């Protein structure tokens, strides 16, 4: 598992993440997204998730967003890189919607918190 510069700041163990993600992405909702401008990436995002079946929250932090060759690239910290396609799709869809909201409101270009 590659190590990113942000891994040491992730407050969850591998077991925490496995317990949350093994319940399936279909029970999870994105409650809030925080986007901040970043010097090394387009944005750094924090995704606030709530899992309905588990009645538990988790924040996926330090996701970096970049646009390369006209496509959105997400870089997840190492503890989140093992998640299956349904989780990746949930996160990617939420971030695309967030970027569209920022694009529609240029005053939010330096950062925004979106309640979904």
Could you describe the 3D structure shown?
The protein has 116 residues and is α+β, with helices and mostly antiparallel strands. It has two helices and five strands. The chain has helices at residues 14-21, 85-104, and strands at residues 28-37, 43-51, 56-68, 71-75, 111-115. It has a five-stranded antiparallel beta sheet with strand order 4-3-2-1-5, covered by helices on one side. The longest helix is centred in the last third of the chain and has 20 residues, at 85-104. The protein is globular, with a radius of gyration of 14 Å. The mean pLDDT is 85.
Features:
five-stranded antiparallel β-sheet, 24% helix, 116 residues, 36% strand, globular, 5 strands, single chain, alpha+beta
Blueprint (SSEs and pairs):
Elements: H1 14-21, E1 28-37, E2 43-51, E3 56-68, E4 71-75, H2 85-104, E5 111-115
Antiparallel strand pairs: 1-2, 1-5, 2-3, 3-4
């Amino acid at each position: 598992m590659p190590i990113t510069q942000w891994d040491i700041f992730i407050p969850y163990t591998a077991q925490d993440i496995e317990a949350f993600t093994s319940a399936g992405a279909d029970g999870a909702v994105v409650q809030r997204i925080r986007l901040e401008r970043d010097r090394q990436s387009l944005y750094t995002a924090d995704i606030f998730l709530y899992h309905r079946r588990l009645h538990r929250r988790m924040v996926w932090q330090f996701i970096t967003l970049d646009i390369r060759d006209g496509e959105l690239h997400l870089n997840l910290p190492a503890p989140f890189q093992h998640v299956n396609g349904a989780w990746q799709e949930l996160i990617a869809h939420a971030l695309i919607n967030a970027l569209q909201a920022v694009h529609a409101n240029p005053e939010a270009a330096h950062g925004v918190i979106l309640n979904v």
